[in-house]
Amino acid sequence: MPRLLHHRLDPSSRLARLMFAEYGVAVDLEDVRPWLRDAALLEINPAATVPILLDDGVPPVVGTLATIHAIDDHYTPATVDSLIPSDAAVRSEMWRLIEWVLVKLNDEVTRYILEEKIVKRDIRGAVPEPGVLRAAKANLAEHLLYFNWLFATRHWAAGPMLTLADFALAAHLSTLDYLGDVLWDSAPETRQWYARIKSRPAFRTLLNDRIVGMPAAQGYADLDF
Amino acid sequence: MPRLLHHRLDPSSRLARLMFAEYGVAVDLEDVRPWLRDAALLEINPAATVPILLDDGVPPVVGTLATIHAIDDHYTPATVDSLIPSDAAVRSEMWRLIEWVLVKLNDEVTRYILEEKIVKRDIRGAVPEPGVLRAAKANLAEHLLYFNWLFATRHWAAGPMLTLADFALAAHLSTLDYLGDVLWDSAPETRQWYARIKSRPAFRTLLNDRIVGMPAAQGYADLDF
After folding, report:
1. Residue of B nearest to A107 (CA)
2. What is the DSSP letter of B152?
3. Which fold has domain B88-207?
4. Torsion on CA atoms B187, B189, B192, B196, rounded to nearest 10
5. Chain B: nearest CA to A126, how far in angstroms?
6. A88 inside 8 A of chain B by CB
7. What is the C-alpha to C-alpha distance for residues B144 and B57, in angstroms, rounded to an integer?
8. How far apart are CA A14 and CA A55, in angstroms?
9. Where in chain B are the domains?
10. Which residues does chain B have within 8 Å of residue A96's beta carbon, measured at their own beta carbons?
11. How many percent of chain B have pLDDT more than 90?
12. Which of A34, A124, A149, B95 is the most exposed place for a label (fewest CB within 10 A)?
């Protein structure tokens, strides 16, 4: 069985877990706190990031891009449609939005909120810097406006069908939602889309997540939020 | 003929140009200064980044991931090996290193140097902040140590064959080299690899680049540097 080194609130780890769940493939999860830069972790990945995918007889698969490609290349059952669509235009739109989420949304929102609320607390018991959280939340509001605009005319992020872009975005928003940072009232179109993806069986694995000492915000696991 | 909206020193644009050149596909280049956030650019790409790939009859292909996938999906001649290898282990290692370059190297080095030396100067004639450049160069020294370690045991970045990871890394280093920021004397293994990739015909397109008012550093276009 494949084994995933992950952190429960790391969005890229969540993306990998969503893919496995959607493809109906069982995976063993092993919790890692990558910011501790454990020597065993650094040996596999000098960048000290998760996810890392381990399986018998193959070298470790390291990082977000390598993991999503490996899952799609090697763990997609023949009976299931790939989350990477064959239509060229939808496919390009999917990669555009995956990059938007992995680079821009992460860079302007998610990584600051995780650093302030999870990493600083875990490393030295420090409390979040309010100014940093405020800036990240203001950036998130701008991103939600953009996603509202997208979802006003599309059923799924990249077009008419569910793709990896939906799971990439849902992975980030689910982390931010766990921490209580998504103001859903201000994002009706995105909320409708999120309610739809949240009710997929694949999402259950994330909704059961709990972090010791950091309970999920109200509504996190509710399908009607 | 495909048309690429690009900036000459933008590493992801350079990666796309290297792919086209390596695949022997002619492409029209159109210079863009994405930081000016021109309305026509924002309409195609609200993230205001390049590269953007345009061609007849298909929607614009926006961003790094979408562009490299589109080039590989639609512009690889049947007679040429794809830069995305079929071997699973090399392929995963390639994606790991592409992510290293596009996210980590960019985030710790390239984007600061471009912001300080190109963007600030172009927008308001400002001079670079020495402290920022110093920090970025110290980070680059760490990255070069890692690449030296890699190239001490491999012919190409991801293993025995040339892949997209080589072009991704070469695109970033060529930008930094244009600006005179790579201390090659401290990086003998990486220099050997760079000399090898720089002498490929595909690289010529980059070596002829000139930015008005910002000449290339000495050695930039020399195959023996």
Report:
1. B107
2. T
3. Glutathione S-transferase Yfyf (Class Pi); Chain A, domain 2 (1.20.1050)
4. -120
5. 25
6. yes
7. 43
8. 18
9. 3-74, 88-207
10. 45, 61-63, 65-66
11. 96
12. A124
| pLDDT greater than 90 at residue A213 | no
Nearest CA in chain B to A91: B66
Find, in chain B, the residue whose alpha carbon is nearest to that of A61: B92
Closest CB to B61 among A74, A92, A107 = A92
pTM score, two decimals? 0.98
Pick from A89, A91, A95: CB nearest B63 = A95
Give Cα separations from B209 to A38, A77, B4, B14 (angstroms).
43, 47, 15, 11
User: What are the tens digits of pLDDT across the range A102-131?
Assistant: 999 999 999 999 999 999 999 999 999 999
Please check the confidence at residue A212 and state whether its pLDDT lies above 90. Answer: no
Q: Residue B212: pLDDT above 90?
A: no
Are the C-beta atoms of residues A97 and A168 closer than 8 Å to each other? yes
Q: Test A96 with B70 for CB contact under 8 angstroms.
A: no
- DSSP three-state, residue B61: strand
pLDDT in tens, B100-127: 999 999 999 999 999 999 999 999 999 9
- For residues B12-20, give the mean pLDDT: 98
Residue B66 distance to chain A (closest CA, Å): 5
Pick B3-74's CATH classification: 3.40.30.10, 1.10.3720.10, 3.40.50.300, 3.40.190.10.
3.40.30.10
Helix (H, G, I), strand (E, B) or coil at B212: coil
Residues of chain A neighbouring B72 (CB-CB closer than 8 A): none
How high is the pLDDT of residue B58? 95
Looking at residue A31, its amino acid is D
Chain B residues 127-186 within an 8 A CB cutoff of chain A: 146
Residues of B in contact with A92 (CB under 8 A): 59, 61-62, 66, 69-70
User: What phi-psi label fits residue B63: left (phi over 0), alpha (psi between -120 and 50 degrees) or beta?
Assistant: left
Please tell me the distance from the alpha carbon of residue B155 to that of residue B109, in angstroms, as a whole number. 24
| Alpha helix positions (H), A45-125 | 64-74, 88-99, 111-114, 120-124
Per residue in A24-61, is it b (16+ CB within 10 Å) or e — as a string?
ebebebeebebbeeeeebeeebebebbbbbbbeeeebb
Question: What's the CA gap between A144 and A156, in Å, rounded?
Answer: 15
Residues 6+ apart with CB under 8 A from B195: B223, B224, B225
Given a contact cutoff of 8 angstroms between Cβ atoms, the answer to whether B46 and B195 are in contact is no
Residues 6+ apart with CB under 8 A from B171: B11, B12, B14, B15, B18, B101, B206
Cα B72 from chain centroid (whole Å): 16
Instruction: Give A221→chain B minimum CA distance, Å.
Output: 31
